[in-house]
Specification:
The chain is an alpha+beta fold. It contains two helices and three strands. Strands 2-1-3 form a three-stranded mixed beta sheet, covered by helices on one side. Strand 1, helix 1 and strand 2 form a beta-alpha-beta unit. The longest helix is centred in the middle third of the chain and has 12 residues.
């Protein structure tokens, strides 16, 4: 949809919430894959991880939560 409007992704910010697995060893590969899919530089992709301090379904290791936001730039439509 962004490309259809001649826009571009400025950056992506991803947060993963889980107790396990540890995300740190996989961040570089995840950044590379996301950047390739989105056709942007890996410098424009930020991935971080946190835990829920053993609270809720993520704390019980029943699932993983991922939240992402994207900054996009679209040309002015005058």
């Amino acid at each position: 949809m962004i490309a259809e409007r001649s826009g571009r992704i400025v950056n992506l910010d991803v947060t993963i919430i889980c107790e396990r697995p540890r995300i740190g060893p996989h961040v570089a590969a995840m950044c590379a894959n996301i950047a390739e899919i989105c056709r942007i530089s890996t410098r424009r992709v930020a991935i971080k991880a946190t835990t829920s301090e053993q609270l809720g379904f993520t704390g019980r290791e029943e699932g993983i939560v991922a939240m992402a936001s994207a900054s996009i730039e679209l040309p002015r439509m005058d």
